[in-house]
Amino acid sequence: MAQYSARLDGVFVALADPTRRAVVRRLGRGPASVGDLAREFPMALPSFMKHVRTLESNGLIHTVKSGRVRTCTLNRERLALVDDWLAEQRRIWEERTDRLEQFVTDPEENRQ
Amino acid sequence: MAQYSARLDGVFVALADPTRRAVVRRLGRGPASVGDLAREFPMALPSFMKHVRTLESNGLIHTVKSGRVRTCTLNRERLALVDDWLAEQRRIWEERTDRLEQFVTDPEENRQ
DNA sequence: CCAATGGTTAGCCCTTGCGCTAACCATTTC
DNA sequence: GAAATGGTTAGCGCAAGGGCTAACCATTGG
C-alpha cells in the first residue's frame, strides 16, 4: 500500500511534464532510441536524458543499451496505475451520488 | 488545442502532489471547508492554502467564500481530461497492435 | 463590543527541477 | 586506427515548489 502510493506518486510526477508525456505518447507507437526521441524536442541531449531517466526510474518506461544505442520501451502496466486511481475516484463519488439519491427517495433513514 | 494541452498540463501538475490528490479524493465525498480539509494534513494552514489555490487555478476544484468560511467543491469535468489522455494513449497503442497483427497475418503488404 | 474562529498576506528558507555547456567515454564505420 | 556517432558525466544557474512563522483582516458568537 505504501508501495502503491509511492509508485502512484512517481507516475504522476513523471507525467506532470509535457516533454515526458510526449515521450510516453511517442513510445506508444513502438520502441525508439534515445537519439531518435531527442531529435523531436528542442533541448540539448543531456537535458533530454534526464527526462528519460525520470520516466525510467518511475517505471513508466524501460530502457536497454545495446552497443552504443539505448532503446526505450513503454511500460503500459505502470500507466495503468493512473487508470486505477481514476476508477477509485469514480467509485467514491458514485457512492456519494447513491447516498444523495437515497436521501431524496427516503429522507427518514437519513435524519441527523 | 493549445488550450487543451495547457489545461492538461495543469491537471497533471496539480495531481503530482500527494496532498492535493488526497484533497481531490476527499472532495469526491462532497464539498468541505478549507479548515475541515486542512485538519487532515500535518501542515500549517497557509501551506495548505497554497495547495487549495493550485487545485483551483488548475480547475480541479471550485471554491466559494461565504461569510468567513471558504467551501471547496470538486470539478469532475476537469479530472476527465486525464481520462481522455489515457484513452488516446490506449488508442495509439492499439493501432500499433493492429499493425503488428496485420504484419503477422499478411507480411506481403508490409514490405518496406 | 470583545474574543474566538477561519482565512489571508507577506516574506523567508531550502530543496528540487529543468535547462545549459564542456568534456569525456565507447562503439561503429571508413 | 582515425573520425564520426550515440550517450554519459560533471557541474553550473536559475526559477519554482513546498514548507514555515508572524501578523493581519473579517465574520460570528457570547
Fold and architecture overview:
2 copies of one chain form a homodimer. Chain A has 112 residues and is an alpha+beta fold. Helix content of chain A is 66%, strand content 12%. The first copy, chain A, has a 3-stranded antiparallel β-sheet. In chain A, helix 1 runs antiparallel to helix 4 and helix 1 crosses helix 5. The longest helix of chain A is centred in the C-terminal third of the chain and has 30 residues. At the A-B interface, helix 1, helix 2 and helix 5 of A face helix 1, helix 2 and helix 5 of B. Chain A binds a DNA duplex (30 and 30 nucleotides) through helix 4.
Question: How far apart are the first and last residues' alpha carbons of chain A, in Å?
Answer: 34 Å
Helical/strand content category of chain A:
alpha+beta
Overall average pLDDT of chain A: 90
**Most extensive interface: pair and counts?**
A-B, 27 and 27 residues
Unreliable segments of chain A (pLDDT under 50, ≥5 consecutive)?
A: none
- For the CA atoms, what is the radius of gyration of chain A? 21 Å
Portion in helices of chain A: 55-70%
